[in-house]
Specification:
The complex is a heterodimer of chains A (263) and B (470).
Chain A lengths: L3 E10 L2 E11 L4 E5 L6 H9 L5 E9 L2 E2 L5 H7 L1 E4 L6 E5 H12 L13 H14 L10 E2 L5 H15 L3 E5 L7 H14 L5 E6 L3 H5 L4 E6 L2 E6 L2 H9 L13 H4 L2
Parallel strand pairs in A: 3-10, 3-11, 6-9, 9-10
Antiparallel strand pairs in A: 1-2, 1-4, 4-5, 7-8, 11-12
Helix pairs in contact in A: 5-6
Chain B lengths: L27 E2 L6 H10 L4 H16 L21 E2 L13 H10 L1 H7 L3 E6 L2 E7 L1 H5 L3 E4 H7 L1 H7 L10 H9 L4 E5 L9 E6 L10 E6 L4 E9 L7 E3 L2 E6 L4 E9 L4 E11 L4 E8 L4 E4 L2 E4 L5 E10 L4 E10 L5 E10 L4 E10 L6 E11 L5 E10 L4 E11 L2 H8 L5 H12 L1 H4 L4 H15 L5
The chains are: A alpha/beta (263), B alpha/beta (470).
């Protein structure tokens, strides 16, 4: 049985069916890329997996650690070991990154505000951050800033990957993590993700463009078009897509000009 | 000698949240209700000079004539004749911590006073019942000529200074509740900071109501002489009783040329308390007055800290936070009155409503003719946590001088699904996520508080938020 399995997932948004029966199996140690043109249902997939309230599951299952995570509230999915790096990370005014990260780590550790032994110590927290932040080339001032407030595109995405690094998920979904990134940031982010790759982590990279896959080599590539997987293959499928685009299924170039990427 | 009254029964809904109760040892207990006799008795008990007795009686006459405000919150259910206007818990004030009775120490322990007190050993005047029982003054402050005492002692020990300023900023005729306080006031803090003296450590007091049907009418007077600085902190909490309680304080502050005064309040009265407070400061040339005012508890709060900017260069800030839960109405705001040119004011109000709670911002910016180049900015942000809750703004601007810069901004927002999803996707529960968002919303306020108070406020918000999730 695979470690993480999406079975015949069907999802609708505002009454319209977006995902029309999607199945995918990811094992720990593997990196899968889901690629597709705009409107194919990529974001619906990532948000549904994490339980966003706007996405209505019409059918199917998502099995992880013996549970159908679709029945769990979002925070339980996170506690079980899932992680979603958002395409558009949300601003939370007045909450420092440091407070946010510590609260998230403590939540994962089951600290409910009472049993102090479960909470991360200041020393441990500092050591953990220092290490991960150096990989992502982030300086300390970042910790005293409010969550995503005034962050550049690159800072936001690096902050997402930092959260992943400290929360140590077993199944990570990276939703368009490369969009809006300059080349340096892509490199730092990819280095950090590659460092995390290993037998304890399954990764699902959701992306429109092949660029990020040059830095994070996927083991498998799946093409999502119009709410259905239309082709799966190895890393070579990404190269093929780079050359041909999604033109076989829709009229749209795979290689977009840089301006389009900087959303 | 006065009689000792045995304990008063507490009501059925006396809650675990403030689940402590000390058998009350009263030295004296006044009769319920208001009359010239009660007022005279209070003054006699306190052994006051004749002018104060007359002042009180005159205030009582004004009280009789004036009407309660018809705007703002509904005050019709207060039964003024069913309230004790004076209680005294110990005969003498303790000068040192050792002198303070053990049961009172117990109460403060549970309120967390000692920690704060030990950290800020500058001096504490903690009001228990209607009178200050504990009061200590750091030697260093004493040597600098700083007076930090309870208001009753100040009347006795510094009669000239007291008489010069008392009732000059908020006269009894100002409003009906100020008249009430003037007639029956008891306790409160008195601070005098001499010229050029900067008090580096915040001076603080803890207030508490601990008797059923007992009003608390403290009176605070702060005088900052030229080029001085002081930060005064009052924090309040109260146990929960069944019948309505009234808290009606008057705070008068004089900030002289070049001085700066900050007055911080974290108020958490139990939700049966009517909290009707008149706070006013006058700031002279290049002086700065800052009100930092947090209102969490009470059934009804009506409080509009005001600043009169009397001379050029005077500056005033009001930063307030109000939290209204079920059955609560927080009617709060601020007033800035620009009398002189080149004065500036900044009013920032943040309010949170949940479970049908109601918050109102009520503010006044007034610029007199000739107050050229005055600047004023008002910002009100309201956060609504559900559909049943309500927030209103009642800003009033009266500008009689063309050469000014006046700004006003107001926002109303809700906790967004995107924010909740984001935090929950990191393993944080919905309730915790809401608490975080609320704490983040009031962070501009919290960051102005000393760290212990900030932590306490965040914890209070957490308590308020529990169970608020639908």
């Amino acid at each position: 049985m695979p470690d993480f399995e999406i079975k015949d997932l069907r999802v609708s948004v505002e009454g319209r069916e977006i995902l029309k029966g999607v199945s995918l199996a990811v094992n720990k140690g593997e990196v899968h890329a889901v690629m597709g043109p705009n409107g194919s249902g990529k974001s619906t997939l990532s948000h549904t997996l994490m339980g966003h309230p706007n996405y209505k599951v019409v059918g199917g299952q998502v099995l992880f650690k013996g549970k159908d995570v679709l029945t769990l509230p979002t925070e339980q999915r996170a506690k079980l070991g899932m992680f979603l790096a958002l395409q558009y990370p949300v601003v939370v005014p007045g909450i420092t990154m440091s407070n946010f990260l510590r609260t998230a780590i403590n939540a994962k550790r089951g600290f409910d505000g009472k049993d102090k032994s479960k909470a991360i110590s200041v020393k441990e927290f500092r050591a953990l951050l220092k290490n991960e932040m150096s990989v992502l080339r982030m300086d300390d001032s970042f910790l005293s800033r409010y969550v995503n407030e005034g962050f550049s595109g690159g800072e936001k995405k690096r902050a997402e990957i930092l959260q992943m690094a400290v929360l140590k998920p077993e199944m990570a979904i990276l939703d368009e993590t490369d969009s809006g990134l300059d080349i340096d940031s892509i490199k730092f982010v990819s280095d950090a993700v590659n460092k995390m790759r290993g037998p304890e982590l399954g990764v699902l990279i959701i992306t429109h463009y092949t660029r990020v896959l040059k830095f994070i080599k996927p083991d498998y590539v799946h093409v999502l078009v119009n709410g259905e997987f239309v082709r799966s293959g190895g890393a070579e499928l990404a190269d093929w897509l780079e050359a041909k685009g999604y033109s076989e299924w829709v009229k749209e170039p795979a290689k977009a000009p840089a301006a389009l990427e900087a959303k | 000698m006065a009689t000792v009254i045995p304990r008063i029964d507490v009501g059925d809904n006396y809650k675990e949240k403030y689940g402590f109760f000390d058998p009350e040892k009263f030295v004296f207990k006044a009769k319920r209700g208001l009359s010239p006799e009660v007022v005279k008795e209070i003054s006699w008990m306190k052994n006051e000079p004749e002018w104060m007795t007359k002042f009180r009686l005159r205030a009582l006459q004004i009280w009789d004539k004036k009407e309660l405000p018809t705007w703002g919150a509904d005050l019709s259910s207060i039964d003024f004749q069913n309230i004790y206007y004076y209680l005294k818990s110990t005969e003498k004030q303790g000068k040192t911590w050792e002198d303070v009775p053990a049961d009172i120490k117990n109460t403060f322990d549970r309120l967390g006073v000692p920690q704060a007190e030990r950290k800020f050993l500058a001096g504490v005047a903690a009001q228990y019942e209607s009178e200050v029982v504990y009061h200590s003054l750091h030697k260093e402050l004493e040597s600098k000529g700083v007076i930090f005492t309870d208001t009753d002692s100040a009347l006795r020990d510094h009669p000239d200074l007291f008489k010069e300023y008392f009732g000059t900023i908020i006269p009894p005729g100002d409003n009906k509740l100020a008249a009430l306080n003037s007639a029956v006031w008891s306790g409160g803090s008195f601070i005098y900071v001499p010229k050029g003296v900067k008090v580096e450590i915040p001076l603080q007091a803890y207030f508490r109501i601990n008797a059923e049907n007992m009003g608390q009418f403290e009176r605070t007077l702060i005088i900052c002489d030229e080029d001085s600085f002081v930060h005064y902190i009052e924090g309040c909490t109260a146990p929960i009783y069944t019948t309505d309680s009234l808290h009606s304080a008057v705070v008068e502050i004089i900030v002289k040329r070049g001085a700066r005064c900050r007055y911080t309040t974290v108020q958490n009265w139990s939700t049966n308390v009517y909290n009707l407070v008149t706070k006013r400061a006058v700031a002279y040339g290049d002086a700065t007055m800052e009100w930092v005012d947090g209102n969490l508890g009470s059934q009804i709060t009506m409080k509009y800290p005001s600043i009169y900017l009397m001379e050029p260069g005077a500056k005033g800030d009001v930063l307030s936070v109000a939290f209204a839960g079920k059955g609560q109405h927080q009617d709060a705001g601020g007033k800035a009155v620009h009398v002189a040119p080149n004065t500036s004011s900044n009013i920032v109000s943040k309010s949170i409503s949940k479970n049908g709670g109601r918050t109102s911002y009520r503010g006044l910016v007034k610029v007199y003719p000739g107050a050229k180049n005055s600047k004023s900015f008002v910002r009100c942000d309201a956060l609504l946590l559900d559909e049943q809750s309500r927030s209103d703004t009642y800003p009033t601007t009266e500008v009689d001088e063309p050469q000014v810069r006046i700004g006003h901004e107001a926002t109303v927002s809700k906790v967004s699904d995107e924010q909740l999803f984001y935090l929950q996707s990191r393993g944080i529960t919905r309730a915790e996520a809401e608490t975080m968002i609320v704490n983040g919303f009031i962070e501009p306020f919290t960051k102005e508080l000393p760290i212990e108070y900030a932590v306490e406020l965040n914890r209070l918000i957490q308590l308020e938020m529990i169970g608020s999730v639908g």
